[in-house]
Specification:
By secondary structure, this protein is of the alpha/beta class. It has one domain: 3-Layer(aba) Sandwich (Rossmann fold). It is 25% helix and 20% strand. It is built from six helices and seven strands, in the order E-H-H-E-E-E-H-H-E-H-E-E-H. The protein has helices at residues 29-40, 42-52, 90-98, 112-120, 164-171, 225-234; strands at 14-23, 59-67, 78-80, 84-86, 130-138, 186-193, 209-214. Strands 1, 2, 3, 4, 5, 6 and 7 form a seven-stranded mixed β-sheet that branches. The two termini are 21 Å apart. The model is unreliable at 1-9 (pLDDT under 50).
């Protein structure tokens, strides 16, 4: 383990994995720069909040999934990184985020569920003493049903669920044998319109979910990165 992974206080080592799913379609242009700026500052902000609680993160990894619409242009519908260790891979993270351009999208629904499915199936950290696995979705649009738009494209993600019920089982409810996320570690934070499918995760079966409604079709007028930081810090 590197020295950055050994920097912790007390007897517990904290591992935090975060996947940022970012809608990169044209309507997100007004706030995409704000999302990108906040994401770049994420490590320092979380570190400060944890320090105030007398804790520190032993390992922080971020992964970014930028999505558009497989029905519009399958070639750029999904762009993603591997998990990047921060702060040692901050440059790679910042360069990827800086290169996300808002454009395309075609019709109103986007391929947000494909991005969510990829996030759920990420290679989450399984070690250290305490873990938090967080998925954050930024979008102002509803989403196409899984497997219905662009599913035959060569770039369509292989191995992800083709319907919402199977995706819910991978999320882990009810006591699903197909769950791929650790129940005690997982969190889902949605900055998304109160429309299908994003209204469903606030129902009882999508447990451990926070939903901050955005105005559909108008971009994200505002979002609170502080909410994400506090969700992680208070749960460790």
């Amino acid at each position: 383990m590197t020295s950055e992974n050994n920097q912790y206080q007390g007897n517990l080592q904290y591992a935090v994995d975060i996947v940022l799913c970012i809608d990169a379609t044209g309507s997100m242009f007004p706030v995409l720069d704000t999302v990108k700026s906040s994401a770049v500052k994420f490590h320092d902000h979380l570190d400060d909040v944890m320090a105030k609680k007398g804790k520190s993160i032993s390992q922080l990894r971020l992964k970014v999934i930028a999505f558009r619409d497989f029905g519009d242009n399958p070639a750029d519908a999904i762009e993603q990184t591997d998990f990047l260790h921060l702060p040692s891979q901050s440059k790679e993270f910042e360069e990827f985020v800086a290169d996300i351009d808002a454009g395309g999208g075609g019709d109103i629904p986007e391929s947000g569920l494909e991005a969510l499915a990829l996030a759920i199936n990420s290679p989450w950290e399984g070690g250290l003493d305490r873990r938090r696995h967080v998925i954050v979705m930024f979008t102002d649009a509803p989403a196409h049903a899984l497997g219905t738009v662009g599913a035959s494209a060569q770039t369509y993600p292989a191995g992800i669920p083709r319907n919402m019920d199977d995706l819910l089982e991978q999320w882990g409810y009810p006591r699903s044998q197909s769950a791929v996320m650790e129940q005690s570690a997982k969190r889902l934070v949605l900055f998304a319109p109160d429309q299908a499918p994003w209204d469903d995760p606030i129902a009882e079966e999508w447990d451990l979910t926070l939903h901050f409604p955005s105005k559909a079709g108008a971009g994200l007028e505002e979002f609170e990165m502080d909410e994400i930081i506090e969700t992680i810090a208070n749960s460790l």
